[in-house]
Amino acid sequence: xxxxxxxxxxxxxxxxxxxxxxxxxxxxxxxxxxxxxxxxxxxxxxxxxxxxxxxxxxxxxxxxxxxxxxxxxxxxxxxxxxxxxxxxxxxxxxxxxxxxxxxxxxxxxxxxxxxxxxxxxxxxxxxxxxxxxxxxxxxxxxxxxxxxxxxxxxxxxxxxxxxxxxxxxxxxxxxxxxxxxxxxxxxxxxxxxxxxxxxxxxxxxxxxxxxxxxxxxxxxxxxxxxxxxxxxxxxxxxxxxxxxxxxxxxxxxxxxxxxxxxxxxxxxxxxxxxxxxxxxxxxxxxxxxxxxxxxxxxxxxxxxxxxxxxxxxxxxxxxxxxxxxxxxxxxxxxxxxxxxxxxxxxxxxxxxxxxxx
Length: 357
Known about the structure:
Elements: H1 35-43, E1 45-49, E2 53-59, H2 63-68, E3 83-89, E4 95-104, E5 107-113, H3 114-126, E6 134-137, E7 142-149, H4 152-155, E8 169-172, E9 175-183, E10 186-194, H5 195-205, E11 210-211, H6 215-223, H7 260-268, E12 274-281, E13 293-296, E14 299-312, E15 318-325, E16 334-336, E17 345-347
Parallel strand pairs: 1-11
Antiparallel strand pairs: 1-7, 2-5, 2-6, 3-4, 4-5, 7-10, 8-9, 9-10, 12-15, 12-17, 13-14, 13-16, 14-15
């Protein structure tokens, strides 16, 4: 069962979402982290090569203006010292992809989930038309490294300066270093640079930081409350459903982009009835995964939400970000897959949501 979810204000348009097996390229199977790997990231310091991401480079005189007309955030005024979250929507305002965007010289780089990269890059390329812009897959020659915990001393041996705020970026000979939202009050950074250069520096980090599974990063993203659009949930959510308005991924003052009218109408016409919450649920990643629907104990006949992202949790079970009707959180219980499925135990997000009126 894959019933289209309601819009942010509660209506139910038809979804064009494609099943996970239709993905042009699947996410790599990540090794399950051992307990010590979670401890390394939280208690000490760790790094992890992030094979679950791809990189798209947009270059040319019109690259910024072209992306500005396609994405939910402002790329026209993206400066060299900052990165921004952004979404890419269908004409119906449903997210096809989520990006972290930043400038690298004259190029704008887009960090995207690897399993949607090919389809999204192809779709974006169709709309370039006469613009002086070119999109290229930079994944093969680019390394993406996540770092978490007590890593500043180790990084100071690679970069002359470290970012002093979330989504602040510094550049150096080894590439770009971007601070991303903390998880469990621990610092996190993304290091993106030429593969050969980054790999040459990693050997020096091995004596200072522990190398852990990239799956730890997925868990940290969930605990940071930052959803990521992957193939199983393509075209399921208007940006507000995954808190993108709260996370700064939508600029409501910029010009038009695909789905902009739907996104703006959802923001201004009334109450937003669906949001993303953080929870833990019993199970494993074979059963608890993006796209699985949620059911409320008082209304077993229709879904009340959907799993957006899932990752193994150090204390057992699976931590999840779930898109859900706000009314479903008021009483009763929420269950995975069916009304008699495993119950979700909700946790506090690390940021507040607007009080809907």
